[in-house]
Amino acid sequence: MSPSMVKTNKNALAAAPGCRDDCPGCPHRRMPRQESLNQKQTFLQTRLSTWADRIAAICPPDNAPFLYYRKKVCLSALWEVPVWKFGLIRRDAVMDLHDCPVHSHEVRAAIHLFVKSLPHFSAFPLVFYAQSGAQATLVVKQQALPDLSWLTSDFTCQLENTGMEGLWLHLNPAAGKNVFAKNHWQLLWGKPRSTSDDGFLYGPRSFQQPIPALFQQAMENANAFLLPRKNDLLIDLYCGSGIGLKRWTDQGCTVMGVELDGEAVECAAVNAPMATVLRGRCRDRIPQLAQWTKNKKTVGSRRLAFVNPPRPGIEPEVIQWLAQDYRPARIAYLSCSAGTLCRDLHFLEARGYVVQRIIPYDFFPGTLHVECLALVARKTAELPG
Predict the structure, then answer these.
(1) How far apart are the C-alpha atoms of 227 and 194, rounded to whole Å?
(2) Architecture in CATH of 72-191
(3) What's the rounded mean pLDDT across residues 23-28?
């Protein structure tokens, strides 16, 4: 690597306007890109040491997008006379990140508009600002409707100019560790759903990987491993808004997904209309999954699984059902926690599965975070099915 390239990689984020030196969000921002990847690779080799020889090199995003790539944020909000601050909580104060160079230009523009437009805390007790693509949510820590006199036609015109398409108010008197509650959502302006660049419907709570092209690469690797085909049965757990479901059904699979969030289930019904989607916790849907598998079984079909759980990993009841009852021929497991991935892979291997490969992805460049796609197959000594 040339000295000029090292300098560019090292300073692209740390030297960008708006990057705060005291911000803990991107601890690798001063490192050359390769040094950051090396540290993450070493972490995975240690944390997943049982399979160290099967861990691929981390897949970085094309063109190293250190800057302006995050279109999904969730920031704490605090009124500090005479202004609002949106950012990270640190020592009981909010470190404002209004100009964070990791956030997309649309996110930055929307934050600046809200900061200058919202009334003081006594009239509008805002605690969180969340944005998912073109959908924004103001989380207020009370049950009663707050002052909305600031929501003028001039404001909504400016908001639309930032690229926003929907603005929500979420009344959550218990907001704290959990940002969102189930009920008390109100659309203040715009439309309730937006469409991503790749044509998928999403809403204000929708999870979106920050670098869609890299996520697409992960899904292609999962697809190449699973090799889904006509008449195969594929279960997609923690399926979100149906991006994977659409891929599997397009290849002729018979597919069932399970997702807890109601908004994601609604979007999945539109994004992947050929799939069956159940709403609820995966562990609570085991009886329906078992019955569906029994009803859909055909001669020559294989059982496959794709799982993308949150940080706690696969629920104990679910992984037990997967390994001992459903017994898929192959499992593609996209994990955001090396710790729970390690636990779950040990569980699967103890029940007749082999980890063939682990592919890491740098979805959050500049941070400590790294995600992994584990490709797991049932031992070939068993009969297919």
Answers:
(1) 31
(2) Beta Barrel (2.40)
(3) 90
